[in-house]
Design brief:
This protein is of the alpha+beta class. The protein has a single domain, classed as Nucleoside Triphosphate Pyrophosphohydrolase. It contains two helices and nine strands, in the order ββββαβββββα. The chain is globular, with a radius of gyration of 14 Å. The termini are far apart. The relative contact order is 0.27. It comes from Luteipulveratus halotolerans.
């Protein structure tokens, strides 16, 4: 039996050495903003829609560039359920404001790595390795 995989698109946005992250209502962990595709959506279309819904800003799809695809155990799901997250850098317009199911927007540093989901931890470690998130292991 193969593992179940949840596909997601996510936005990697850094400011002053900190990573934009979100916390959904009723959740304890922080997540890179993004979400799952609707039927027929491309990864990039998913990214634009999810960020508009969650943070009320408009991603400029012409500036989007894939940073990487990360896979790990899905946080809050049974063992063997994986999340595969395609992460993009992209420019945006508007004011970042939590909306929909997002309760909190946070700017995480390397010291916050213990408060994120397993796949986000992989993202943070890669950002640290690439010199984009100072102090990440």
């Amino acid at each position: 039996m193969s593992a179940r995989v949840i596909d997601k698109s996510a936005w990697i946005h850094l400011e002053q050495g900190r990573l934009l992250s979100t916390r959904s209502c009723g959740r304890g962990a922080y997540y890179v903003p993004g979400g799952k595709p609707e039927p027929g959506e491309s990864r990039l279309q998913t990214l634009v829609r999810e960020i508009r819904e969650e943070l009320t800003v408009e991603i400029d799809p012409g500036t989007a560039r894939l940073y990487g695809v990360f896979e790990a155990q899905a946080h809050g799901h049974p063992d063997g359920v994986l999340v595969r997250m395609a992460c993009y850098f992209a420019e945006y317009t508007g004011q970042i404001t939590p909306a929909a199911e997002i309760e909190e927007v946070a700017w995480l540093t390397a010291g916050d790595i213990g408060s994120v989901s397993p796949v986000d931890e992989l993202v943070m470690r890669r950002l640290g390795k690439d010199g984009l998130l100072p102090g990440a292991p």
